[in-house]
Amino acid sequence: MTDKRPRWAPVRHFAERSVLGLAAVTAIGLAFGILLLLVRFHWQPLLGLDRSVADGLNSWASGSDTIVAVLTQISSFGGRGVMIPLVALLVTVLLIRRLPRPALYLTVTGLGALILDPSLKALIGRLRPVVEVPVASAPGNSFPSGHALGSMVVYGMIVLVFLPAVRRRWRPWFIGLAALIVAAVGFTRIALGVHFLSDVIGGWLLGVAWISVTAYAFRIWRREAGRPVPALTDGLEPEAAPDLRPAPAEEAVLPHPWAKAAEILVGWVFVFGMLYLVGYSVNRWEPPFDDGFPRWLQTFRTPSLDDLSWMASKAGDTHAILIISLIFCPLALALWRQWRPVLFLALAMMGELTLFLCAAAAVGRERPSVEQLDGTMPTSSFPSGHIAATMCLWAAIAIIVMARVRQPWRWIFPALAVIMPVIVALSRMYRGMHHPTDVLGATLLTAGWLTVLYFTVRPNAHAETASEAAAEAEQVTRRPVTVG
């Protein structure tokens, strides 16, 4: 007689997991429902606890501007301005890796959280805390905390989707990092005085319930599609691990890393020496021979051009450069499955920042003798940090893309490597922040530093197009994968 147990074992395991999961979701839902009722009907012990926690944390946070700034920065990791672009970027990465099912899960779960937050806030209508020393403000009602709900959902579903790509020994750290971010965001919302403790706990409970429901629906979808249903400790789709891993087929990113580090350090010193020599020479001219150009540009100032130059100048500030880098690096990694171009761009921007700060501190050049629309700046005029950062960013991206893209649109990136620095340079000089020789310093910094990195990192070694990388990864994907 044939043994039927192997055939029914997956069904039994799925049933057991389903019952346990349903019980957990029910318990979480009940806890949230009870908390909602207590808040809605103003249960005094809970109100007293909320008030004492809010007052205590407010008195601690309001005593230091530094603490408030740090709390605000941490809180931003739970705001829509960070989480919506993050989810959109990850969905794009998953689609590039040809993983539409996890991409759809991220999209549906994220959209659900966006709907739940304002709906429940409008239904409950709880006012935000009134603290003695307000240090922050937020629109809308208080219960549940949108930051707590959103961070729990976003970072929770990121863990579920990308867990298969993490080696088993690192998974507790990966989960712990996500939990730490969620806890930190919730704490900051109370400490900043924009939410009560019960608001944050309610957001967490609702977030856990929502990702539990969507994860359960995803597992049902897998079973209906004839796929095995693994334990959640293995992630939503364990068989997608080769596609989720950043660079499964790449060998050593840099051979002889210590020797390469020494070469990069020596190159950095030589570029700094060149900048200091040029900056020292320029700084000895009294009065500066190129002061006339910013004064000439000042004659064209109008309110409209002032606003336009401010926007153009912002294209080269730290936030814009960081945002573009954080968008390009994951997309490059998803397309070409190599860390080397990402390392090249990261070193380019870190080297640019350190060279700019060190050279500016060593040279100490005064700003042009015109009205400076951006006010007093903490760094000296030579070299221009905005222009150097813009040059390094777009030139590095152009170097990477030109070796890996065959389509005609690739020429957009060399064009941007020229157009963007010109726009930023003109705006900075128009606003009275730099001399033309400061632009020269930025150009020397970019040319010298990218040359050093190009010949040490060799970002285009083993360069592949997206189709070649996908074909190679397809061979990796075909290897047998054990599903727990």
TrEMBL record:
This is Undecaprenyl-diphosphatase. The chain crosses the membrane at residues 20-43, 77-96, 103-124, 144-166, 173-194, 200-218, 264-282, 318-336, 343-364, 384-402, 409-427, 439-457. The keyword Transmembrane applies. It comes from Actinoplanes philippinensis. CDD domains: PAP2_like_2. Residues 103-215, 342-454 form the Phosphatidic acid phosphatase type 2/haloperoxidase domain. InterPro entries: PAP2/HPO (IPR000326), PAP2/HPO_sf (IPR036938). Pfam families: PAP2. SUPFAM superfamilies: Acid phosphatase/Vanadium-dependent haloperoxidase. The keyword Thylakoid does not apply. Keywords: Membrane, Transmembrane, Transmembrane helix.
